[in-house]
Specification:
CATH superfamily of the largest domain: Creatinase/methionine aminopeptidase superfamily
Strand content: 15-25%
Strand order of the largest sheet: 1-5-4-3-2-6-7
Structural class: alpha+beta
Number of helices: 10
Low-confidence stretches: 7-37
Largest sheet: 7 strands, mixed
CATH class of the largest domain: Alpha Beta
Mean pLDDT: 92
Shape: globular
Length: 408
């Protein structure tokens, strides 16, 4: 791995800050200063080969994979380089012909463990300008960008003017949708952590407690197991008999009633995101008729998914199969029915109407029908992480599909 710095200006930069020269920085550790590029691990070789196959199919000269610290958007950079973004942002640049490298803004030199990257690293005041310069030198014409709409910084997008930029989110996600055995091990570990976190949340729950107090018990577990800040945990609350469909931060001011829906999503040390949760009710809670009927539909969805989520079925087919119990009862689905999930929190393909992408063995999907009653009030939302196998869908958590009743 080689770490290098590039300073395009030597005086007053366009931002009004003096551009740093190499001599102004402390020397890099000898172990990373000028080492040779290590051979990529077999897992990273597999990932790059799949990405390059997708690039070739779409006639790309290069691919820029964007990542930033927004929850769930950091994983694509890790997927392609091994480096985990702690702060700010980065780009993995994959030429169709040539070795890949990572570009960081200069101020990110000491943010994160840069020795974990398997790729050469370059630090530049304006990463987009460096990428554009190398693109011109290499004669690139057509460049795919993962994160073009949601992740890439505006100033870097502007620097790439003159290149034909191709949004590549769907294509990149499809190239990484089938998980390797190493990835499945990481997914299962995340599910283990997530499931136990739900159980801890459930044990801590009691009507009258604050959402923050109950969520804190689960978050302590998540951090202790190595999730760090890779959690996105919320609650859906309402009355003693039903929950409303809005996702909320678990605040101290949110006092829990006799029914709630925790939304728990975490990534373990391997950085694979998963989702596992169940609805929770107090022992004597009298639930609304719509809540009870939606819970019945959830049991039907759970069984339908086992048969529907098999190789060759389309995402449209799966959506129709798992949503039937809800739509036949007159409920509509708010949030997406399900989606592929991996090192990025939400990946393509989505499970939904008209999505004709076919499932393949070893794909991982998060499934969470967001059932909402006609009155727009009553809602049930429970989460599972599913593995596509030759025999159908396999839920990776072992929680029964039911509303959990507390002893209080």
């Amino acid at each position: 791995m080689v770490i290098s710095f590039t300073w395009p200006v030597t005086g007053l930069g366009r931002t009004g800050c003096t551009a740093l020269r190499p001599s102004a920085l402390p020397p890099l550790p000898a172990t990373t200063q000028e080492t040779e590029m290590n051979a990529l691990s077999p897992e990273l070789q597999r990932r790059h080969a799949n990405a390059r196959a997708a690039m070739a199919a779409h006639d790309l000269d290069a691919l820029v994979v964007s990542g930033n610290e927004y929850s769930g958007f950091e994983g694509a950079v890790t997927y392609m380089s091994g480096f985990q973004i702690v702060h700010r942002y980065a780009y993995v640049v994959v030429p169709a012909d040539g070795e890949a490298y990572v570009v960081f803004p200069s101020e990110a030199r000491y943010v994160g463990e840069h020795g974990t990257s398997e790729l050469d690293q370059v630090f530049h005041d304006r990463p987009g300008e460096l990428i554009a310069s190398r693109a011109r030198d290499a004669g690139w014409r057509r460049v795919g960008v993962y994160g073009l709409d949601y992740v890439m910084a505006v100033r870097d997008h502007g620097a790439l003017e003159g290149l034909e930029l191709v949004g590549f989110d769907v294509e990149f996600d499809l190239a990484r949708a089938v998980k390797s055995e190493a990835e499945l091990e990481s997914v299962r570990d995340s599910v283990r952590i997530n499931q136990r976190g739900f159980e801890i949340f459930f044990d801590a729950y009691a009507p009258g407690k604050s959402a923050a107090e109950v969520m804190a018990a689960a978050e302590e577990w998540f951090v202790a197991e190595g999730c760090g800040r890779l959690t996105q945990n919320m609650v859906l609350t309402g009355t003693d008999s039903y929950a409303r469909p809005e996702f909320k931060i678990a605040r101290r001011e949110e006092i829990l009633r006799e029914f709630l829906l925790p939304s728990l999503e975490v990534a373990g040390p391997g950085m694979h995101w998963v989702e596992v949760s169940r609805a929770i009710a107090a022992k004597d809670a009298v639930l609304s008729a719509d809540t009870e009927r939606m819970a019945e539909a959830y049991v039907e969805y759970y069984e339908a998914a086992r048969g529907a989520m098999r190789p060759g079925a389309t995402c449209h087919d799966v959506h129709r199969a798992v949503s039937a119990g809800f739509t036949q009862r007159g409920y509509h689905l708010g949030h997406v029915t399900g989606h592929s999930i991996g090192m990025t929190m939400i990946e393509f393909p989505k499970v939904g109407e008209g999505v004709e992408t076919e499932l393949a063995e070893n794909m991982i999907f998060s499934m969470h029908p967001h059932a909402i009653a006609a009155n727009g009030e009553d809602c049930v939302y429970m989460q599972d992480t599913w593995l596509v196998t030759a025999d159908g869908g396999e839920p990776l958590a072992s929680l029964p599909m039911e509303i959990y009743r507390a002893d209080v």
